Amino acid sequence: MFEHIRSFASHFFVTGEPMIYASDVAIVLFLVGIIFTLTYLKKWKWLWREWITTVDHKKIGIMYLISALLMMFRGGVDALLMRTQLALPNQTFLDAEHYNQIFTTHGTIMILFMAMPFLFALFNIAVPLQLGARDVAFPFLNSVSFWLFFFGALLFNLSFVIGGSPDAGWTSYPPLTELGFDKGPGENFYLLGIQISGIGSMATGINFLVTILKMRAPGMTLMRLPLFCWSVVASCIIIIFAFPALTVALALLLIDRVADAHFFTMLHGGNPMMFINLFWIWGHPEVYIVVLPAYGIYSEVVSTFSGKKIFGYKTMVISLMIISVVSYFVWAHHYFTMGASAGVNSFFAVASMLIGIPTGVKVFNWLFTMFRGRIQLKLPMLWTLAFIPCFAMGGATGIMLAVAPADYQYHNSYFLIAHFHQTLIGGVAFGLLAGMYYWWPKMFGFSLNERLGRWAFWFFNIGFYVCFMPQYFLGFMGMTRRVYTYSGDTGWTSFNFISSIGAYLMGIGFLFIVVQVLYSIKYGERDLTGDPWNGRTLEWAIASPAPHYNFAHIPEVTERDAWWDMKARGESLIKVNQRMAFKPIHMPKNSGLPFIMAVFFFISGFGFVFNWYWMAALGLLGVGICMIVRSNNRDSEYYIPAEDVEKTEAALGRV
Amino acid sequence: MSTLNHYKEPEKQSHSTTSELLEYQRHDGPLNILGFWIFLATDLLLFACLFATYLVIRTHVDGGPTDKDLFEIPGFTIETILLLASSFTGSLAVYEMRHNDKKRLLGWLVVTVLLGLGFIGIEVSEFLSYIREGATMQRSAFLSAFFTLVGTHGSHVSLGIIWMISIIRQVAKYGIEPINARKVFIIGLYWHFLDIVWIFIFTVVYMTGVVS
Amino acid sequence: MKSLWQKGFILLILCLIFLTGCSEKYPVLHPVGPVGEKERNLIILSAVLMAIVIIPVIALLAFIVYRYRDKPNNRAPYKPNWDDSKILEFVWWGIPIIIIAVLSIYTVRDTFALTKPPANTGEPISIQVTSLDWKWVFFYPDEGVATVNYIDIPAGRPVQFELTSDAPMNSFWIPALGGQEYTMPGMAMRLWLQANKVGTYTGKGANFTGKEFSKMSFAVHVKKETDFDQWVKALKNQSPQLTEAGYKQLKKPGVVGKKSFSSYPKDIFHDTVMKNGGKYMNNDWMMKDHSQEMKGK
Q1: Which positions fall inside the Cytochrome oxidase subunit II transmembrane region profile domain (chain C) (predicted)?
Q2: CATH number for the B24-211 domain, one of 3.40.140.10, 1.10.10.10, 1.20.120.80, 3.40.50.720?
Q3: Which residue of C has its CA nearest to B60?
């Protein structure tokens, strides 16, 4: 009996690696620490009532943000481990298996469990406030989305200590990922973790599209919509049209693996190419899902910190929409080298290059928004200014990659690696950080320290170029991606060494951000006006942090940049409060169901990972029961009495 | 109560033809219905991907049974008739809801559920007979794709049946009012959607299979 | 400001010298055959076209940030409501459209050109390539010999590689000769390459295939025609045969060194393609005998 348990445990838990034992200890200590602190401070009830059951978009946004930063840490540590291994030739710091797992988790986490939730954090925090709305269209669903993401990410990360991490790359191409070549549960963790959080992403896409289409303040026509909201519209449209393809790709591969079917196997008529098609039909639009909202953030930031209207608003909207449509017609550029005919390759090459046109136009519009403005170099603006040259280069190398015959030489090389890190870090991560700094006072009521932020900025930026510029050259030298080591006679050593130094500089930059946040919690400048940046859109018209109901009176919008316009007219929401009587406000009630439902999803996913069907079925049954309970619940809303609204506003000094 | 103070106050409708219908009267009606339409778009794309996969590997039978060997006209014809009929009775339910006739609404919903159950029953027996013949989804890529595509539709219908039973219970309890009206209307959309997907399965999978 | 420009310019020159200095180190930029050269030319063309946009953008950014910074004494104009200029927008829609149009023309032209053997060169030869876990097997259908993890090819003759995989898909890449093509189970794909300069180059598996993927490089010996013939002769005389059983042994996952064989089972490449799903693919245009086409050259 004991032997049986021991043999099970040695397969179930990942063993034989000091780094993982150390992490095991760290995880256990961390959990014990959290549990102890919460118990000691008697905060369990608070955690449940205020956070876990919340349907408030602002709190959900904050939870997304915290999770995303944690995931950025994990993904970043993965990156540093890889760069340490590659700094010198023939290193044995990591062996092949661990290296393969680490690049897989790095890619998957950074795209799906860092960039996506970070964006959703900013969607949640900013969109309803910019629209002059009191919440999103489906607050309950919003909570479901968050918890599905959370438990999907948890399931994926669990593979580090239980069962073993996936090790076939974030693209997970079959037949390498089929049972014949990859028996371990790692790949199942990948498939189910992404699937569960993907359902949440799809719901978020629907939620925010309906919110923006239906819940704008009176007078806010579509052409008066803040550009960030427009970028969210574009992003949501892509989510809605692209995610089903991922759902199908992952589901079919999972069916292959758990039910021994033959969609993508080498034998019995399977067709691996079909997975690659489905994956990239989602995969390329996914890039635009994450980058378009970043464009929206840059637009807001550039305009605010130049004290000037955005240049060419209509062009900005049109170019966003063009990109979101054309992004569906470029996916095959991920495999120009997989035997498509010259005609097909030509089509996808030209379509991919076309994306460069609206993107280039946007860059010029940002430049000319600054032109004849007054540029304040605050943190959000610094990251935006760093974005422009970085993304211009990343975009240019993107167009170079789109030239199909040239791509035969770049494909799978470090040139490609450098390119997509330049667009995803220079384009997306810089935008996410700019957005975080920009909306931080609105989330928490205090600003982040500028000085520490500048240290973070310079370390991260210089580190970025030191890390990734050499990788373009490594590409020309013929270094392929995903190699866990190389020999000294390849001549790749010096560039790899420089690149690793850059990675560490970026790591130091991240640490500065952590220090900055901790320092600012204590000493950060409190925002009492609600409008620390002299903002232009409605989120700056209310107090920081926003009260639970956001707007005591829904503002009337008469112009683009509604808050700027109000300020110009000498109007403010405080004056509206003084003029008009308060009324009771109708709000959604908190609910524990989304959390419970996501737990059941997690249980089901865990069951599928290990082919424990009873557990998988139990989980799905739980999910079904949760849905029926929700459908029969008729008590999901309540009123905040007018007196309470008045009291809250008075406490904020806004009557 | 002031409608302006809902946390989800939709834009003013420029022309109020739809806002007169019961399902649009509550503040969340238009939001939920629009949201559900968009959900259907995602579901449609999901099926589109499954159809594409099926068409790509339809002929990959690996020496096993082909579509022509397997499909039998009576089975899928009865399935089609049952599902089309259920779509019709589903419409009748919404029609009776419009006339505020709770009894008939419930009646037609029950008939719809029964027809749906009949459809599922025949589909399951069809699957079982294939499996008895050795045509399992492990046999070949074609069979993997067939069972997955048709099975995904079948599980959609099954979920719809459970959902509809839950709505029948709610209509019986609370009567015809805006919340229930919205629910009945939305499941009606869902049911018609499944019907449309089935028509594609009927032509792309079964008819093509029998004729080819 | 000025010194920054000077530094940047010097840096640029240094980079160019650096790039052109050591050709051995940058096979992609210093290819030894017409295919690689065509691709290299496109790389240079696209880089130059991109530079036309990027350099002004970065210069403009530096200028704007400097001139319109928020300093009390800044006398540059401030027009908070200026947000539209048809002429300017026309210009920056126009420029990228022209650039992309130019680049598209060359891209499409070369995409089609590269599906054919390089023009005005020697008699083509064929090599069939199978990627395994984690090694490369090469069959010479005309010569009847086979090798593992290295190839010899004659200089100045186009080589038609027919590619497939009997393991997870890989990608066949010899940077010094030209771009890559995937090796995919059940598919036989064609890649034309040619080397004009005698020497030894490195080829590699570019697509991740699991544990020992990093070990999947192979040597490419480009030889004079006579040396190549001699090499074939030596192989025929001295090397063992590759049997079905031998191939099965090779197929087992693992790393092996270089191997040479005097013969191999005739249809092994074809059978491998068919076994892995080739019968469902439209491989005709890839699998058909190209001797006619070759003679026509």
Answers
A1: 20-118
A2: 1.20.120.80
A3: C280
